[in-house]
Write a structure and sequence with these properties.
By secondary structure, the chain is of the alpha+beta class. The chain is built from 6 helices and 7 strands, in the order ααβααββαββββα. It has a 5-stranded mixed sheet with strand order 1-4-5-6-7. It has a two-stranded antiparallel sheet with strand order 2-3. Strand 4 and strand 5 form a beta hairpin.
Length: 180
């Protein structure tokens, strides 16, 4: 049911705003599917996609930039941001924050074959949290609700190609979600 996904997103947002986020942030460091996830993919594809996001979470925890960037396609493009641009964003985050974690709840996974390799579109609600080096406070870096991750199967693994969503104006105003 959509109301359950909305409730999870609202709980994460209000928990963060009210200071309750510290209680559950570690537990939220995961990727999972909602109970009502619509799946148009085989189990192997679903497992590989989940594994890719789990690997990214481990890279975040270790602040391993190279392992994290392995999730991104060499053809990554999000409104003109390339893989190298996103690498710079993550590098900056790693310099300013510690205990970085993310949470992804997939509500839809659709895999299609376009040309020679499969592509996936994943509808996801989630966020990225971190502890600021300067203040020691736990903050939310980014959050999204029902956003679309676009992935491609490249060099034997699922990799981020970009995201559905905001237009170029939103990217320039800082409302974009380039991380995942």
């Amino acid at each position: 049911m959509n109301w359950k996904r909305s409730l999870v997103a609202l709980a994460a947002t209000f928990g963060t705003a009210s200071g309750l986020h510290c209680l559950a942030v570690t537990a939220l460091a995961e990727t999972k599917m909602s109970k009502q996830t619509e799946v148009q993919a085989n189990q192997k594809e679903v497992n590989e996609i989940l594994a890719a996001f789990d690997k990214a979470e481990k890279a975040l925890k270790a602040q391993d930039l190279d392992d994290l960037m392995a999730l991104y396609s060499k053809n990554y493009d999000y409104h003109g941001l390339t893989k190298n641009n996103v690498r710079d964003l993550w590098k900056d985050l790693f310099e300013k924050y510690r205990r970085i974690s993310s949470h992804h709840i997939f509500s839809k996974i659709v895999v299609t074959v376009e040309g020679q390799s499969p592509k996936a579109r994943i509808t996801c609600t989630g966020g990225i949290w971190a502890t600021a080096e300067s203040t020691g406070e736990r903050i939310i870096i980014d959050s999204w609700f029902e956003e679309g991750h676009r992935l491609g199967y490249e060099d034997g693994a699922w990799r981020l190609l970009g995201h559905d969503g905001e237009d170029q104006q939103a990217v320039q105003s800082g409302a974009a979600h380039p991380y995942f």
